[in-house]
Amino acid sequence: MAYGFYKLWLGQREKNELAREKTWARIHLIPVLQAEEDRDQVRRHWADKAREKELMGSEMKVYNSDR
C-alpha cells in the first residue's frame, strides 16, 4: 500500500511540474506572439495604403478641406 501512495505522490509531483512548465512557456511566448501580431498589422496597414494609392492615384485626405 505504501508503494501505491509513493507512485501516486510521484505522479502528482510530475503533473505539478508539467503545469509549471506550461505556465512559464506561455509567459515567455506571449511577447513573441505579440510582436508577430504587431508586424502583421503594420504590414497590412502599408499594403492598404499602397492599394489605396494605386486605386485613387494619391492618398485621400480624411476631410474635404484642409483645416
Characterization of the model:
- InterPro entries: GRIM-19 (IPR009346).
- This is NADH dehydrogenase [ubiquinone] 1 alpha subcomplex subunit 13.
- Belongs to the complex I NDUFA13 subunit family.
- It is a single-pass membrane protein.
- Keywords: Electron transport, Membrane, Mitochondrion, Mitochondrion inner membrane, Respiratory chain, Transmembrane, Transmembrane helix, Transport.
- The protein is mainly alpha-helical and 67 residues long.
- The protein has a domain at 20-53.
- The protein has one helix and no strands.
- It has one helix at 2-56.
- The longest helix is centred in the middle third of the chain and has 55 residues, at 2-56.
- The termini are far apart.
- The model has no long low-confidence stretch (mean pLDDT 89).
